[in-house]
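Regression test case RT-17, inverse folding.

Input:
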């Protein structure tokens, strides 16, 4: 359903997007809401904006408390390693235990419910990279409506690179996974790959608007997409449209309302009686939608599968770099999205590097001859070794 917002509301949202100050942003969002007409087409959007406001309000409170030295839970966790993965689940499913077993982080494991009140990070090694696992406070019904730390927990998930949805196989796993997915969906976090992806990279003023369609626009013309973006004052940006997108999905991207997070299910306590039967039920329910790792914090069974499954689900690749005239390549890889090119690698090494790029040499198993001299558009794969030559 299109929102058909009036021009002044669209302009207001442009101000919201440009604001970096939480208080000011909050104020602008309030003004946006008063400009948005209330009808079916805007209901979802307004609810989403109100949720964003609630998260902002709590962030402001949190900052105030910390400034006053009063402590209280700290909800933002700095990203480290190849990806940040948030562990979500109901209370007592074993989130703290997983963190302790998999990452050696010091956490409090307890049979008392709701022991963990703020996010706790730890590093999970996988081959030559590490994933940052973060235990979130327990989810419960009503989390997306602001119950307990629900909104902050979901905001944590929205900011992550991926999710572990954890269930306890001693309890009904279908009930647990449905509850988690419902709360995620209410804040418009999707765990299955959407048919379309719209990325908006805002640029400096005067850069102009570039729209690149890698897939297809389904229900409108290119001009209509351009007009919609301009209506929201998205005039200096690169907009990339992947897959089969509708005009609604482009509008969603402007509001950053729908987020896709790759996810795996960790089914814990496989050591207990009845766990196998519950695992079968869960597998039948989930089908091929999400990968499931059967696990036990107690015995460690399944631990080696967790890193591997996260790696596969995130769609990332590891690329090693080599300096010209140096025999060995880097021990630590660069982690890039699947489908990245030599140009993307150069850009992630240094923003200047991509401009001075001349050519690269690539060593790879799939090549008949290594090294091969390639251009910036050469697509990379996991395990490739790259030597970049500058002009
Ligand atoms: N049998 C069994 N008990 C577990 C396992 N993992 C966790 N527990 C127990 O479940 C309870 C809750 O664990 P905790 O990690 O604190 O759960 P959280 O609330 O999700 O962080 C504790 O009593 C743990 O000892 C497991 O794999 N098997
Ligand atoms: Mg815990």
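Golden output:
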């Amino acid at each position: 359903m299109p929102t058909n917002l009036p021009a002044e509301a669209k302009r207001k949202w442009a101000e919201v997007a440009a604001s970096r100050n939480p208080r000011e942003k909050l104020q602008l969002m309030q003004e946006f809401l008063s400009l948005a007409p209330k009808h079916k087409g805007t209901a979802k959007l307004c609810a989403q904006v109100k949720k964003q406001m609630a998260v902002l309000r709590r962030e402001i409170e949190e900052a105030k408390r910390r400034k006053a030295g009063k402590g209280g839970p700290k909800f933002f966790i700095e990203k480290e390693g190849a990806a940040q993965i948030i562990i979500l689940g109901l209370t007592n499913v074993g989130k703290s235990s997983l963190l302790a077993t998999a990452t050696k982080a010091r956490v409090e494991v307890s049979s008392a419910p709701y022991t963990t009140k703020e996010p706790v990070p730890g590093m999970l090694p996988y081959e030559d990279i590490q994933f940052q696992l973060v235990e979130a406070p327990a989810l419960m019904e009503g989390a997306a409506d602001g119950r307990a730390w629900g909104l902050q927990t979901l905001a944590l998930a929205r900011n992550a690179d991926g999710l572990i949805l954890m269930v306890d196989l001693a309890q009904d796993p279908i009930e647990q996974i449905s509850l988690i997915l419902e709360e995620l969906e209410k804040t418009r976090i999707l765990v299955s790959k959407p048919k379309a992806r719209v990325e908006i990279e805002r640029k400096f003023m005067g850069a102009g608007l570039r729209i690149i369609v890698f897939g297809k626009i389904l229900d409108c013309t290119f001009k209509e997409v351009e007009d919609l973006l301009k209506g929201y004052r998205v005039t200096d940006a690169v907009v990339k449209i992947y897959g089969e997108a509708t005009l609604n999905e482009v509008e969603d991207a402007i509001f950053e309302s729908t987020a896709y997070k790759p996810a795996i299910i960790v089914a814990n306590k496989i050591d207990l009686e009845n766990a196998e039967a519950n695992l079968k039920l869960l597998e039948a329910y989930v089908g091929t939608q999400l990968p499931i790792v059967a696990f036990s914090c107690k015995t460690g069974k399944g631990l080696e599968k967790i890193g591997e499954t996260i790696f596969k689900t995130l769609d990332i690749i590891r690329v090693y770099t080599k300096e010209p005239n140096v025999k060995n390549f880097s021990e630590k890889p660069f982690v890039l999205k699947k489908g990245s090119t030599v140009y993307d690698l150069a850009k992630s090494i240094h923003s200047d590097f991509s401009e001075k790029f001349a050519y690269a040499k690539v060593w790879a198993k799939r090549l008949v001859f290594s090294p091969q001299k390639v251009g910036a558009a050469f697509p990379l794969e996991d395990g490739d070794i790259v030597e970049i030559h500058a002009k």
